[in-house]
Amino acid sequence: MKRSGRAYSTMTAFVPHYATDRLVFHDPDPTDAPPLYVHVVDAAVVCGPGGRVLHEAPPDGCGDASIPLGSLDGRQVFALGCEAVPEGFRAVPLRDLFGLVDDETLGIAGRAVQCMEFDRTHRYCGRCGTETRMKEDEIARVCPSCGLVVYPVLSPAVIVRVVRGDRILLARSPGFPRGRYSVIAGFVEPGETLEHAVQREVAEETGISVANLRYFGSQPWPFPHSLMIGFTADYAGGEVRPDGVEVEEAAWFTADSLPDLPGRASISRALIDDWLEEQ
């Protein structure tokens, strides 16, 4: 089944960053207008004068192997890899683009970086070792020897806000900046549902159980290729005991005693801000 962007879906109250809204992934009838390009170098976005991300022509130093991302207002958009940053341009890490460009451009840039990284890391067949080639009708690479077809990697991860009365559970990972806390998150494992993943991650990392799971929203998280699926839940039992590996500290916080929180680009912050609005 062809996968489409949010241009085909209804909007929800939660509007995620790094997600496209107007980009049509598989446009059956794009216009004849000149295409647009997103240039990528080492997982960073090549920006032109004024921070421009969508370019009307490839600069010198970029290859000619482009990946179709979709169409924006009828104009086809392509990702294009560069060996080095062209003169007069600068490479901006994807995280640093947040707040510098509009959300639609940010989402297109995230899609471009993910697709180019997939293309760069799947040049050889994982089954027989033969050099792969681009598939012509979709974003994929195919092995000309054994026929294996591989698609862009997408790693689903759950993220959950747990509440106990007027308190929210926040945890600190060893990799966080000093003093930073967030809600619980973790990758979905083979053979489990999203709901099971929520319950397992909370139990493994903090020692408590949860109930009344409710879907909150989802967000592409191209660092490098996650899809965050957000939930809210209520405390059901147990004492908070950090596992000491994924979580080094965890505690219940009230609205007037919150620690340093994640940036506003992430669904983790959206989950916390949504709770704050209810207090």
From TrEMBL:
One of its GO terms (biological process) is NAD+ catabolic process. The keyword Nuclease does not apply. One of its GO terms (molecular function) is metal ion binding. PROSITE patterns: NUDIX (PS51462), NUDIX_BOX (PS00893). The keyword Ligase does not apply. Pfam families: NUDIX, NUDIX-like, Zn_ribbon_NUD. PANTHER family: NAD-CAPPED RNA HYDROLASE NUDT12, NUDIX HYDROLASE, NUDC SUBFAMILY. This is NAD(+) diphosphatase. It comes from Methanofollis fontis.
